[in-house]
Structures are given as C-alpha cells and as structure tokens.
Amino acid sequence: MLIRKGYKFRLKLRDGEKQKFSQFAGCCRFAWNKALAVQDERFSNDNAKLLSKTKLLNLLPEWKHESAFLKEVHSQILQQSLIDLDRAYQNFFRRMKKIRGGDFSEGEDPGYPRFKKKFLHDSFRFPQGFRLENRHVYLPRLGWFRFYKSREIEGKPKNVTVTRNGKHWDISVQVEQEIPDPCPVREPSTGLDMGISRFYTCSDGTFSEPLNAFRSLEKKLAREQRKLSRKNKFSRNWKKQKAKVNKLHRKIRDVRLDYLHKHSTALVRRYGRVYAEDLQVKNMSGSAKGTMENPGKNVKAKSGLNKSILDQGWSEFMRQLEYKLAWLGGELVRISPHHTSQACSVCGHISKNNRKSQSRFVCEACGLEINADHNAAINIQTLGQRGLACEANRTSGRQQELSRNGDRVPGLAA
User: Any idea which residues carry the catalytic annotation?
Assistant: First the structure.
C-alpha cells in the first residue's frame, strides 16, 4: 500500500540566505494575494464565475511583466501558490455544500480564503527540481543547504516545502512510501475516554496524566505579553519582545505535539482497534458569554474549561490515532457520546446523579464505585463492540436475503 509521509528538518542558514528565503516566500504571498483579489472580485459579482486553476496560472506571465521582482524567483513556487489557492476555494465550496445540506451547524465557519500577512505562515514549495544528498538539499534558484538530519528519509521524495519557523527555516520532505497492506484488525481493542483531570483513560484501567503545555507557561506568557503592550509598536524593542512572545507560543506548540505523537504511537502499538467518542470539540469549547439580552451563566468556569479542553489537543490526538492505526492495519471507531459518563458499566442504570464528582462514579442502582473516566471508557468499548456486531448482523441478514432471492452476493462464490 502506498502512503504519503512527511519528514521535517531544520535548515542551517546564514543571515544572507535567510533574506533570500524571505524574498521567495514574499513573492508567493504576493501571487496568492493578487490571485485572491481577482477571485474575490468575481465571487462578489453574482454573474461572474471564478477563474479555473489553468486560467489563474496563465495570468502569471502578465504579472511578471508588471512586477519584475517575480522573475527573480522560480516559477514553480508561484504556480504552487496559485494551486493552493484553487484548493482552498474547493474546500470552501465543499464545506458550504455540507452546511446547506445540514451536515454542519448553521454557525459553522466555511473558511473563505484570506489574504496572507507578512511573516505569518511564510512558505514555498518545490514539486520538482530539488535533490537530497545525505545532509544536504538542493533547492532550484537557491542552491545547496545543510540541514539537521535527525532520522533517515525512507521512500521516494515527491516535493519539498520550506517554512519559516520564527528566526529559523524548516524543510518538510513529502515522500511516497510503500508499506505492507493492512491485515485484519488486530486485537486487543480498547475504549478511550478523553478528560481534563486525565488526558485519556482506557477501558482496561490504564490512563495518562495531562501535560497542560499552555497552563504550565501561561503566567510567563502573560508577563511577556504585558511587556510587549508597553512598547511602541514596530519599534526595535517591540520587535525583540515580539520575538520572545512568538518563541513561547512555538514552545507550547512543539511540547504539545511531541506529547501527542508519543502517546498516540504508544496506543496504536498496544491496541488494534480503538473505540472513542465522536466529540465536537468546537461546540464543546464555545463561549458561554451569551448576549446582552441573554447573558450566560458560570462564564468564568466555562472559560477555564474551554481553555483546558483546547490545551489538551483532543482533535489533533484523534487525527493522529486515525492515520497511525490505518498504517498498522488497525481501526478507530467513533461512537456517540450520549450518556457514556452517566451510565453504569455493570447494570446499565443511567442517571446524572451517578457521577458524584469529576473523578468519582457511584451507581445509585447497584452501588458500583469506580473512577468516572474508567467507567466511561468501559461504556465506550461496550457501545462500540455492540455497534459493530449489529452492523455485521445487518450485513449477514442482507446477504442471506439476497441469496434467497437468487441474486449474487458480493464477496461470495457464484
């Protein structure tokens, strides 16, 4: 089975080379914003259709004639920027279609493409013409550069993306890699309950303590942000302080990602099938302020809960679990979260009074006393196994009915 996989490394650059990289990223940003302005004008006009990807690319020679600095960079990176914009519009229309179809909530943001700002998400991509040799990478129009090679690159390189990361620049090498075809789902299975006091709890009782990357640096970040607010905007001291704030944000992000990758990898190596709640994190972390007419309740407590939920990185953790399980022949099964924390895992009695506190579960009917997250994880596994069994029974019944009617059943011998 062919998969796409990415390897990310930090480049070793001098100041002059960093300036050249900034020029390449700036030209890509210019092409994106210019194309977005054209598409945005046509989008606001109901009678005009958006330009196709091919027509957008055909505008590049004209723009190079108008803006000579675009000729100084490789044409591939400008083309890739316009291709990315076309993909952004496709994603926007797909989400709009889902919202109109009722798959998303009415207040869901469809993500209309936005204009890019300087020094924010600066990047450019080479789909061809690059070369990788040991600890060196060749980028067209830029030359050879060394990078910190922390691990071997396995697979056929398909493209290289260069991204600004604070004062550093990183390369991401996307490769096409052949892995063994997924085997039947491995055992054992487990239910997984996500929480605040515990990051996750498995149905066998094992759990992981939360990292709280943001909470651990929250006070330091607030202190540095206060210093930033006292300085004249865009002054030399302001830029120095801004760099410190950005460095803290990157540290929080990197620490969180490292934690999520380590724990998701540990889970997929231990379990072949994972049952987890289909949590709508965006809805769960919504503001409780309300309006002037209908003000919210317990706003401060809800704000703290929202901060803890977002600090855990549940959505990213589930995304990592899903693709890592698929690579190893496993499966992530999402189930409805209704009553999983209120139902007793022994007798099935459902009551909100069963959960005495955030961590303590005491059943009113049978007297079961257990950790609340552990009880929920057992319920999640039970519901997931029951759902798969019901689906298998429905499939088997349909095959038997088709066989009685004389129709050929897919997957069975004629």
Answer: 193, 277, 373
